Amino acid sequence: MSKAAELAALIGSQSALSNRNLIINGAMQVAQRGTSETGVTSGNYKNAPDRFRLEATSAGTWTVSQSTTAPEGFSNSYKFECTTANGSLSADSKLSILQRIEGQNLQHLKKGTSSAESITVSFWVRSSKTGTYIVQIKDQDNTRSYSQAYTISSANTWEYKTITYAGDTTGALDNDNGDSLRIFWWLVAGTDFTSGTLATAWESSTNANRAVGQINLADTVGNEWQITGVQLEVGETATPFEHRSYGDELARCQRYYEGSELSNPISWSGDVTNGNTYWDVISYTVEKRASPTITIGTEFAKNGFSGTPSTSWIREKSFRASANSNSTTNGAYFVFAFTADAEL
After folding, report:
1. Least crowded by CB within 10 Å, which of 51, 173, 184, 211?
2. Which are the contacts of 5, defined by CB distance < 8 A and separation ≥ 6?
3. Could you tell me the CA-to-CA distances from 64 to 91, 164, 175 in Å, in that order?
4. Does the domain spanning 257-341 belong to CATH 3.30.70?
């Protein structure tokens, strides 16, 4: 048998040798917004690893971070630490971490056909609290859901988990850049999400069936939970984690969010006349998923200009920044940072 054949047999003939992993930043390498955020009580993207979003309601208070504690072969993980406990959950209490995936990246799953493919998620996880946790897959296009449980057996020990979800012959995923599939790792769930029967096969999404059996990670200050090495792939067998370079993962993340603190773009540099408006077209490092929301950030330096730049002509590849001159100046400049947010 050739070396290529041996390798294919080792990782599973169902999978390509590369581009297997549908998760972006699964090794938690990239954290463009920042590496730590305290006082977290609500959802959205945080100062922590890119592409992983939080959902949080009445689930205590948390510090989230890009941790350097990780299993062998990895350098980083996404870490939760409870700083204010909630031992008496309300019905709508929830805390989960999820990734949203574009439909056009999922067409090979053949969802909604008789040939629908099974998918397998694998990951490394560590927690101070043992017990049952839930991983949920949700089809946003057709409002369908499938949940499975895994168990953390030993406190403060990295454990490797694999979960397989059968293919769904109902409901094709849209072939576009929208939010088609979500994968949730539940940490806290009130009765709104646990009072039914766990959806252990594809079904019409029902909140009460999403996280039945989930322990309450928020019940004690100091509880921790960490994850890394996240992989989602076609097939019924988990293959070795597909390590990608930092540069590759950064570019994939920048399709959704880009911060410019390092590149410090200049909106205008040259000679200006008092009272005139000057503009420059600023190109992103990576073309965005959709026209992003632009936020002007730190103003590092300016000469000959006043106020904050305004933005217009916002497109997937670039935007225009305008600024007003407040003097007649040779060699004027305006140096500032921005963020471009096209997250799902």
Report:
1. 184
2. none
3. 24, 28, 33
4. no
